[in-house]
Protein 1
Amino acid sequence: QMMVACCQATSGRQSKAAVLQQCRTIVEKLPTIKRAFLCTLMHLLHDITLNKEHNRMEARNLAIVMVPNFFIFDQFSAHYLSDATECTAILIEHYNDVFGSGPQPLHSEPGTPNESVVEDSRGCMMTDE
């Protein structure tokens, strides 16, 4: 569902500010664990782009490599590949704009072990071990 919403947000002729707001809204609706994982992964990929002059890995290049690993594309959804790549590139390139201070601290959900989880300096969740 997130892929479809993200693809719709990036495929229109909207302003960059509107697309970033839609990406923020989509990310905020993710379950806490998935949001924390996405935040941490996008931060790592964003950090890689900071050395693009040396490693040639711009946000779009990373998105091209990563998107096939994020989603299961069948014959029906394969047409979303380009949009999913664009959406992922936006999340990487505009990490700070989309994630801001990151998700709220993780709280134990019913039926899950009570782990001590803290928010790191990026706003991403990490276990306190």
Protein 2
Amino acid sequence: MALICSISNEVPEHPVVSPVSGHVFERRLIEKFISENGTDPMNGEPLGLEQLVEIKVQPTVKPRPPSATSIPAILKALQDEWDACMLHSFTLRQQLQTTRQELSHALYQHDAACRVIARLTKEVTAAREALATLKPQAGIAVPAPSVPAVAQPAAAAEPMEMAAEPGEEGMTEEIIQKLQDKAAVLTAERKKRGKKVPEELMPAENLSNFKQQASHPGLHSASIPGILSMDIHTADTSKILTGGADKNAVVFDKESEQVVCILKGHRQKVNNVLYHPTENLVFTASPDSTIRVWGVPSGQCSNIVQAHEGAVTGISLHATGDYLLSASEDQFWAFSDVRTGRVLTKVTDESSKTSLTCAQFHPDGLIFGTGTDDSQVKIWDLKERTNVANFPGHSGPITAIAFSENGYYLATAADDSMVKLWDLRKLKNFKTIALDERYEDRYEIKSLCFDQSGTYLAVAGSDIRVYLCKQWQELVVMKEHTAPVTSIKFGNHASFLASTSMDRSLKIYGL
């Protein structure tokens, strides 16, 4: 016998009985009736929710509807469900396609916006540079008459191509006389010093005991690691200038271990830096084809020398402190006035047509050397602007050159892992130091540096090595850097060594 709800006349899912009338009801129906009327629906007598008595019965199973009791009906139900799923899937695919199109359009708009921003940023930078200089530079290459050959045992003058700045007199007689007067003074000072070694110079036995005293890894950005160049202020050797792959140059005080100023402005890495020996001026060069002149500690760019159309690969300051030599991948070397930013002369070697990799003034300032991409070291006469000697012998691009303070020796290095020493009086190679014989991999040479007395030669690359000149004895090898060493410099009287590396650190060595 099944229980029947007195209200719905159906089998209740949750049956309860009314003690007032004794009838059975569905709980939800009788509760709703009581909440509205407060009486029993059968006899009208008062009835409360708390008076209802729940009946415990087995759960009833509702019979299946007739439509689900046969196989065809079940198959039709499944087919209807499948059709509904397919329609839903089709709707989802349409929504996905619409979303993809909207995303593609948004990404295109973002890319276009980025391009516009980059172009505007470039235009703003160019406008700022033009505003800073107010001296537009323009060079038109014109063939110059052939220069008479200068007799040399090993080489002769070669045809050159010179470019003069419009409206400039170039290398005037006044400038040439200034260069000659300075060379005469320097030569006289050198003869006065003679061959005597300065008393303050660090002895070789002490230098061979140099150890790392300090390491400064935080001068440049960690996101673009690497310090590519370095120079020390001659008048105040506590001031060290570094150029990094992060497009910045940094002036650092090694005594206070504080950054004096950060020089920002180049659009690409800073691969060459120079500190003016007597003034608070620094020079930076970059593959962005510009050379910048900065004031320290203000950090303001006072001049931009735009002498080249390609990456600037080397710079060297003339002994007067007023003129700058630069070399570039555009195959030209240039001689510029650092006070005005004007290019006084610009010359290329028509016979070779190869990029220049480095440049360095002779201590007297009347000749200088350049390294080329085709393994040649060329010596130039600044007054005549002619190539007066060539030093072949290396294989691979020249990576570094350095003149000794005595003016007699030239050290050169290339990708062949060799350092060659040349006698400028006899124009011949008298010593070759092979550095890959005791090294596991190919030895890289990035920098060469003589100390101010010409007694020691430092070689930097895969590690740091210091040699005693004349005997060419290896005094010390330092391997504290964890990446190739890019620059090495002596302190005053070789009292300390400073080095920079692609490991982003500046290291100081001493006793």
Protein 3
Amino acid sequence: DQLVPVELDDDLMDDVFPVAANIVADEFGDELALMRTPQTLTLVGELEDEEDDEEEEDESVDMDDGEEEVEVLISFDHKGMEFDLVRLLDPVLLVGKPDPDSDDPQRRLLLTPQES
């Protein structure tokens, strides 16, 4: 099965994100929260590695050449469609800078292509 991402600015994401965020809250409680951040959905909190638990089924998805390998964290159905929340097994680093227009010291802006 090929995974097809839902773009963050897609109307479908507006519909699916609250459902996924509620499922994450139900499954993980206060340990994790799903955030809709500028470039990707972000799980905030400590996600435990379950490599030590040999009884867990391996739910990683092998992709074709040139595609990312992912681990399925949760799967759910919404309006007759199946969705998976996955974690990339090769981390993606996004570089940001402080937002000069924000009072929140934690708020960052992604670097422009010229800045990077």
